[in-house]
Design a protein that fits this description.
Blueprint: H1 2-28, H2 30-37, H3 43-65, H4 70-92, H5 98-124, E1 138-146, H6 150-158, E2 170-175, E3 180-186, E4 192-203, E5 207-212, E6 220-228, E7 235-243, H7 248-257, H8 262-279, H9 286-289, H10 307-313
Antiparallel strand pairs: 1-7, 2-3, 3-4, 4-5, 5-6, 6-7
Helix pairs in contact: 1-3, 1-5, 2-3, 3-4, 4-5, 8-10
Length: 314
């Protein structure tokens, strides 16, 4: 019985990766894909295929990133209905290769049957958890030197609600207790992930360590260490973050394609931290201004900077 129940979860993982692969193909090679399914390769069809690809990609990421993805699998069913309508319209028009359109329609009907079957299975078991294939912990370590004392940097970081001001992938952090907080972060393809975290070690002016709690969308842990820099040049800030990305290393590669690669994120966040502490604001790059990165919202100076920091920023 257990093997039968796990089948629905494994199938959801397969469907998630299938959506991602299909979506990337439609986005990156719409002309070739149009030729493959037998429809016209004109600009209008290529635009439609890119939109369908974005939908597939978002659905696939949603399935893999949510521990209980029944709603996302039902989303695949709705997408299948849309695809069948588009293919039906192509069959009734002057498609260059109606035989290929018919074959594509038959394939979508087969996938639709799988989607409906899996959506029903997952809906009957609301505690189902999709296995994130290939999951391996990723360890990111970065550091920066900031020309301010360790106690000021520690006080800023220890109030986790300050962090969205320097970490632009964070939507919000809510402190829920003396050592606990709730985090919400942006993820690739416009999705979000959330988790609760607790502080595991707290040495004032030296170290803060934390880890996520059970049922986190992304299992993670990390630490930030404040070390006096040589030659009285301020403080070295050392950050280490360990996490299991949805979909393992393949998921990390997909995230990198959409500007969410973790190492670069941490580097950018530490630079923002340095800028806010030393100048009171984040300096926007040209890449941010022209929208070539996902990070388009600058962090703002914290409302309660330490007095000495406020003085240096004015």
């Amino acid at each position: 019985m257990e093997a039968y129940e796990n089948h629905g979860e494994r199938l959801a993982g397969f469907l998630g990766w299938f959506s991602i692969g299909l979506g990337l193909t439609e986005i990156l090679a719409p002309r070739d894909f149009a030729r493959f399914i037998g429809v016209s390769e004109d600009e209008e069809n290529r635009k439609v295929l890119r939109l369908v690809g974005l939908r597939e990609l978002a659905t696939g990421v949603g399935i893999l990133m949510r521990p209980k993805p029944a709603g996302w699998v039902w989303g695949r069913v709705a997408g299948d209905v849309m695809d069948l309508a588009l293919l039906g319209n192509a069959l009734s028009s002057d498609a260059p290769r109606p035989d290929r359109v018919a074959a594509a329609t038959a394939a979508v009907l087969g996938v639709t049957a799988l989607d409906v079957y899996d959506a029903v299975q997952l809906s009957q078991r609301p505690d189902s958890v999709v296995p994130l294939w290939g999951g391996r912990e990723i360890d990111v370590r970065e550091s920066i030197t900031i020309n301010h004392p360790a106690d000021e940097l520690y006080r800023f970081w220890r109030n986790f609600e300050n962090l969205p001001r320097i970490m632009t992938h964070l939507e919000s952090v809510q402190v829920t207790g003396d050592r606990r907080s709730h985090w919400k972060a942006r993820a690739p393809v416009g999705s979000t992930v959330e988790w609760d975290a607790e502080i595991t070690e707290d040495r004032p002016n030296e170290l803060i360590a934390w880890r996520s709690l059970e049922e986190a969308d992304v299992e993670n842990s990390g630490s930030v260490q404040f070390v006096p820099a040589p030659g009285a040049r301020g403080t070295e800030v050392h950050v280490e973050i360990r996490y299991n990305p949805p979909g393992g290393k393949i998921g990390a590669v997909i995230a990198k394609l959409f500007g969410e690669e973790p190492s670069q994120q941490v580097k950018d966040d530490l630079l923002h931290f340095k800028q806010v502490i030393e100048t009171g604001e984040v300096v926007l790059s040209e890449a941010t201004l022209d929208g070539s990165h996902w990070r388009q919202r600058p962090a703002q100076p914290p409302a309660e900077l330490p007095r000495s920091v406020r003085g240096s920023a004015t």
